[in-house]
Amino acid sequence: MRPRSRLVVALDDVSLERALELANLIPEADALKINYPLVLRHGLESVRKLSKLNTVICDFKVADIDNTNRLIAEAAFEAGAKALIAHAFVGSDALGACVDVANRFDAFIIAVVEMSHPGAVEHIQPRTDELVRTALKAGVGGFVAPGTRPERIAHVRKLVGNKLIFAPGIGTQGGSARDAVDAGADFVIVGRSIYGAKDPVGTARKIISEVKS
Amino acid sequence: MRPRSRLVVALDDVSLERALELANLIPEADALKINYPLVLRHGLESVRKLSKLNTVICDFKVADIDNTNRLIAEAAFEAGAKALIAHAFVGSDALGACVDVANRFDAFIIAVVEMSHPGAVEHIQPRTDELVRTALKAGVGGFVAPGTRPERIAHVRKLVGNKLIFAPGIGTQGGSARDAVDAGADFVIVGRSIYGAKDPVGTARKIISEVKS
Questions:
Q1: Nearest neighbour of B90 by CB, restricted to A65, A66, A115
Q2: Hey, are the CB atoms on A63 and B87 less than 8 Å from each other?
Q3: How close, in Å, is residue B36 to chain A by CA atoms?
Q4: By C-alpha distance, which of A92, A53, A58 is closest to A78?
Q5: Model pTM score
Q6: Mutating which of A12, A46, A67, A123 best tests the B interface, going by the most B Cβ atoms within 10 A?
Q7: Could you tell me the residue ranges of all domains in chain A?
Q8: Strands, E assignment, chain B
Q9: Would you state the CATH architecture of domain A7-212?
Q10: Residues B49-88: pLDDT tens digits?
């Protein structure tokens, strides 16, 4: 997955109908990120339908034991997802189980080693370096680093070489797309600021031009 | 939720038809634990149907930011779940969002502060004490402690007072139900050893008598 527009649209809290509409309206997006709130309402059918329109990243924050992680990863990739977000803190075997499945599907795992919300500083941030090591050893293809804290993106960038970095927390949570990319993010993930906007397409284009300028 | 048989049957990797059959065959179980592999295949309908037969624990290992955690918790409890398993690792705001929703539904959150698989020793076990503090402050009703490591159940028991402790990893993963209860678990969670057995009902009864003796 190569950065073009650098924009990943998060469709975290919208109906499937609206998600499909937004996917059609914003074809410039490099990918669509979907999460359990959508999938719990509409099933894996939502992944199947959206993956016909654009690259789908299943942001399931997978964080179970190896056997369960494997089953969740199989479900996501069989439905058409090209990437799956999984937690590194569950350890190398559990994260490795996701990577094994991704490799079978020519897809990849994006590891969470930092997060964008305030509570991330309590237990995750103190272990970011160790989490990155676990994730690199497991063979993930990308990392999540917080758009709300560009200095942490820069820190993760130093640790992960040329692996892909995805930065959530842009917009509603307070992060700036430009700052995230300047700090080393390949992609900015934007949800509420786009799907909650009066003009989602205009907002998406504004973000794309902001990260390209 | 009071321990009676002390058995929670995990229906992690079975069809909904088989899950409903097992729920009917083992009414002595104190609860049924279900996970994403089932829900991704059959939707929240699986929670709705199973919760008519017994208490349902949604083992979603919730591990996202507060806003997304809230949406996931609402989906689980609206469908009839009485408890939801969530990670303490994501911090007090994210875990607290789950607790807030649980309180509205007269349900409760079970916090993960340890896990049963080998990789849990890498990042989770070193922080168990801090994770317990986060979870107690957030107001959770129960804890997950590994049936594969009774000494860790005893450790968690010391930290959590009279809160409920649920021990997974019994059977296939190597844990002993008796040892888990002796170490302080209120409930043993058993999945593959029951649903993979030739005689699931007999196996369940054997476990119940083992923890009662």
A1: A115
A2: yes
A3: 7
A4: A58
A5: 0.96
A6: A123
A7: 7-212
A8: 7-10, 31-34, 56-62, 83-87, 108-112, 142-144, 164-167, 187-190
A9: Alpha-Beta Barrel (3.20)
A10: 999 999 999 999 999 999 999 999 999 999 999 999 999 9
